[in-house]
Structures
1.
Amino acid sequence: MVDELDPARIPRHIGIIMDGNGRWAGARGLERTAGHAAGEQSLFDTIDNCQSLGIEWLTVYAFSTENWSRPADEVEFLMAFNEGLLVRHRDEVAAKNIRLHFIGDMDDPRIPERVVARMAESEEKTKANTGMRVVFAFNYGGRNEIVNAMRTIALDVASGRLDPTKLDAELVSARLYVPEMPEPELIIRTSGEQRTSNFLLWQSAYSELVFTPVLWPDFDRPALVAAIAEYQQRRRRFGGVDEG
Ligand code: IPE
Ligand code: IPE
Ligand code: MG
């Protein structure tokens, strides 16, 4: 197996909180936005690396529901940047048989229409692809995702389509943005921060969290392999006890 990982314990789904772009730029005397631009290469290298390691799902946190509180010029940059990134990479991504998904509140009027259109188009263009799934969490918040799920459930209860006594965790999972998405076994956060910042709240109940000091623009294959290796050392108990 590549890179000395245990082939039997490769996570099916990895989530990544791509953090540290601003600090990467600041350390070089550059504008914060230069850090975001530098993160583009890390993102597409990471997609390739995950694909070659046999990871089936990769979810990347690109813009949170809280990121609107950043200075207007940075927000504006991030909107245009994320759109440009899709234009620059969608053909190569499609050629790799990757299917793209976007999770988040896309009805938010603050998102420029052309960005919404580009995301919808990218999802549509890759929907028949059968390879790795890459999920962009954009204007995403875990609380929002759960609230949305609850709203659809409440509407079904109010209209008599759903018996409220039948509500369970499985039903909530089925109302999340991408119902078929498996829960991530591993969530990686770069830049040394140790929190989830509203990422995949419902799905991360039993995820292993790996924090690396590496800043996102410096995140490379060895850093990814090290994070997976750390995950492979963990003993996942799910509330039970160790076997043997
Ligand atoms: C992550 O890098 C990218 C986004 C949140 C969009 P940051 O921009 O948060 O970088 P730091 O944390 O300020 O270094
Ligand atoms: C989380 O990073 C969001 C993304 C990576 C898109 P932030 O940099 O926004 O998170 P906080 O503010 O440090 O928690
Ligand atoms: Mg940050």
2.
Amino acid sequence: MNQIGALKTASLRPQTLDVERVRSEFPALQQKVHGKPLVYLDNGATTQKPNVVIETLERYYYLDNANVHRGVHELSERATEAYEGARKSIRAFLNANSEKEIIYTSGTTESINLVAYSYGIENVKAGDEVLITEMEHHSNIVPWQMLCERAGANLKVAPMNDKGELILEEYEKLLTPRTKLVGMVHVSNALGTINPVKQMIKMAHAVGAVTVVDGAQAVAHIAIDVRDLDCDFFAMSSHKVYGPTGIGVLYGKQHLLEKMAPFQGGGDMIEYVSFAKTTFNQLPYKFEAGTPHIAGAIGFESALSYVKQLGLGVISAHERGVLQYATQRILAIPGIRIIGTAKLKCSILSFTLEGAHPSDIGTILNYQGVAIRTGHHCAMPVMQHFNLPGTARASFGLYNSRGDVDVFIAALEKARQMLV
Ligand code: C6P
């Protein structure tokens, strides 16, 4: 497209989100739950899927279903083209240098485990250190704990303050020449905090550490540019950004991936196999053993293209407005305490109600058609920081409106009347 064409397209793109139109594109949102129109506020757990993603999956299974990289027949060629085409689109979405840096995985959890096993076991030795933050999801704690135990290395934790903000000076102090790896969550799923990952990466690089960003909660809300962040690895899940479950990506810098040993052995990841010796395929296939989630990858591309078309800037601005409105309205309810009051937050509202258990709140809201999540959100150390067993959490997506917030607040007020 020439420059004038690009400008015209940009000017045609709406600057605000037409929430009603967007919502009409998500079939799951059209239903009633317990006789009430569904208000879905559990997007941190997983997002609903637009028609275009569902139709992409359907079309693939109706017409193109075949294994990839294996057949010479028409269907296999079509499936391979779509599967590899999706990798190209994901590369562009993340602004990675090359498709070789885009490894398909089952999601964020597997992506982080891949780094822990493949990079970690080779590079983290006895006495070395792995640094993470206090607000990590279990997926970005347990793999490092397992690695450190195996290697005889030490797991260090950078603390946060009572707003749920990382204490950057403490983080910097914990970086030493022994720090081999730093794991950091971009957006906390339990608090909504947006971490200053670019700055954290720069600090980690200053001591020669390799960085792993858990982007699970970021990709649906913040435009990601892995080259600008300069992260070494970035992990993400398709299902948190309107795509199918069971598929995700590990982005890794090519020079690091080249040196890493495969994580799993099997089909597709090999170049040559004999009983005496096996040699491995080139990137990215070296890390993709077995028949992959082909439909998932194609559906993931379709979801990213949907998001890209709406524009992440427009989505972020809309969601920021919804979060601000929800924050202001919830604070008017007596006994509410917001857990996670960082200056920089997105899409997540975690709270407690004095005198009520979070799971009772969730149950009562469910009977009013409002879906939220309750519990520790797979971030037990965050709960330990606040000395809580769990919280109730409303998490917003691009299809949520202020009207949804009004229904949620009315339901919460009802819960309060019943429980307190
Ligand atoms: N958080 C939530 O309700 P997977 O399961 O691999 O797609 O994503 C794991 C994961 C990793 N990091 C963060 C920050 C996450 O939020 C999640 C998933 C869900 O908050 C399920 S526990």
